[in-house]
């Protein structure tokens, strides 16, 4: 396994455009882009612009606590998305990476009974993912350094969610 896959901001610009082009070329025209916070938010915004889709929804899921260390299962965090808002929609679910695939699976299952169609798009997929994303820019088995989360926060905050 390679040590790290480094995605720079420069390369991210190319990646997000190429991923959007792959969605467009497939003929899929989402009526909603749903970004999984926090890692999927920047890709979701980029895809929403590139695919000319103004309906951008988000939901928060927490799974990882560090490099390759995770909770037992991914957990949805408030505020919770109202699934009724997805009724009849063609939803493109976007995350930064499908690693175990459990986060994408959770969100896909959460939406499944309400949407008209759902597709998944990620910048990276890993070979072990339990879900095969419909759209992925690249495959790697390395831990990925994303440009938005590689540098430490400029300020450390504790207990924010409990406040
Ligand atoms: P999964 O549920 O597919 O195992 O992981 C989903 C989430 O875990 C991703 O959205 C991301 O936030 C985090 N994650 C998983 N693998 C990596 C990785 O290689 N690098 C980084 N930076 N985050 C990862």
From TrEMBL:
Keywords (A to Z) from UniProt: Glycosyltransferase, Transferase
A Pfam family this chain is assigned to: Pribosyltran
InterPro entries (alphabetical): PRTase-like (IPR029057), PRTase_dom (IPR000836)
GO molecular function: glycosyltransferase activity
Record-annotated Phosphoribosyltransferase domain positions: 5-150
Keyword Ubl conjugation: no
Signal peptide, first to last residue: none
NAD recorded as keyword: no
Protein name: Phosphoribosyltransferase
Protein species of origin: Mumia xiangluensis
């Amino acid at each position: 396994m390679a040590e790290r896959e480094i995605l720079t901001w420069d390369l991210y610009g190319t990646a997000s455009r190429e991923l959007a082009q792959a969605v467009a070329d497939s003929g899929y025209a989402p009526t909603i882009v749903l970004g999984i916070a926090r890692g999927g938010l920047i890709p979701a915004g980029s895809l929403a612009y590139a695919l000319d889709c103004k309906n951008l929804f988000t939901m928060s899921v927490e799974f990882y606590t560090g490099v390759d260390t995770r909770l037992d299962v991914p957990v949805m965090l408030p505020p919770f998305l109202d699934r009724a808002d997805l009724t009849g929609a063609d939803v493109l679910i976007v995350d930064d990476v499908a690693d175990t695939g459990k986060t994408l699976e959770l969100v896909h299952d959460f939406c499944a009974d309400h949407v008209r169609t759902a597709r998944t798009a990620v910048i990276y997929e890993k070979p072990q993912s339990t879900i095969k994303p419909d759209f992925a820019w690249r495959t790697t088995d390395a831990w990925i350094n994303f440009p938005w989360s590689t540098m430490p926060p400029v300020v450390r905050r504790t207990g924010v969610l409990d406040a």
